[in-house]
Design brief:
Strands 1, 4, 5, 6, 7 and 9 form a six-stranded mixed β-sheet that branches. This protein is of the alpha+beta class. Strand 2 (35-40) and strand 3 (46-47) form a beta hairpin. It contains three helices and nine strands; from the N terminus they run H-E-E-E-E-H-E-E-E-E-H-E. The longest helix has 13 residues, at 59-71. The chain is globular.
C-alpha cells in the first residue's frame, strides 16, 4: 500500500514506533443499492474503501479522494456513519506500527467506472447487499450502519 509522503517524513525521526493516525472508510452505494468493494492487495480480503487523511485535508474529502484513487468511482460523502479508534495497532511487514482513528462515511456514487485504479487493490466491484463476498467484521459493520437509518455511532470506554 502506498505510504503518504508525510508519514515517510515522520518515520525518518520516529522510526517504527507507534503512530496514531486519522483514517477514513467509505461505504459507497450506487443508485441500484449495490455497495462498492475492493479486494485488498496486502491481505486479499474484500473491504470497503479507505485510507489515511492527509495533513490539512477534511475527512470527508479524504474519503472521496480515496474512493476515486483506488476504484475510479466518483462519489459524494453524505453522512458520518461511525467514529472509532481501532482496538489493535497494525504492524506492517516492514515493522512500522500504526493505530487508526477511523471516521466512516456513507457515500453515493455519482460517476466513474469501477476498476482497479492503483496498486492497493487486486479487484474492485459492485455487490448486491444480499450477495456480499466474505469479508471482515470491520467492513460488514460499516455496511450495516450505512443501510440503517440511525444516528452516527461511536465507541465509548466505560470507566464506571
Amino acid at each position: 500500500m502506498a505510504t503518504p509522503d508525510f508519514i515517510r517524513e515522520l518515520r525518518k525521526t520516529a522510526g517504527q514506533q507507534l503512530l496514531f493516525l486519522p483514517g477514513v472508510s467509505a461505504v459507497v452505494l450506487d443508485d441500484r443499492g449495490r455497495v462498492l468493494l475492493g479486494r485488498r492487495a496486502d491481505n486479499g480480503t474484500w473491504s470497503v474503501i479507505g485510507g489515511i487523511v492527509e495533513p490539512g485535508e477534511q475527512p470527508a474529502d479524504a474519503a472521496v479522494r480515496e474512493v476515486e484513487e483506488e476504484t475510479g468511482v466518483v462519489c459524494v460523502a453524505e453522512r458520518i456513519l461511525l467514529v472509532e479508534t481501532l482496538r489493535k495497532p497494525v504492524v506492517y511487514g516492514n515493522g512500522d506500527i500504526c493505530q487508526f482513528m477511523d471516521v466512516t462515511f456513507a457515500c453515493r456514487a455519482v460517476g466513474g467506472e469501477a476498476r482497479v485504479n492503483d496498486d492497493e487493490s487486486t479487484d474492485v466491484g459492485w455487490f448486491e447487499i444480499d450477495a456480499l463476498p466474505e469479508m471482515k467484521r470491520f467492513s460488514l459493520r460499516r455496511i450495516e450502519k450505512a443501510l440503517a437509518d440511525e444516528p452516527a455511532w461511536f465507541r465509548t470506554t466505560d470507566r464506571g
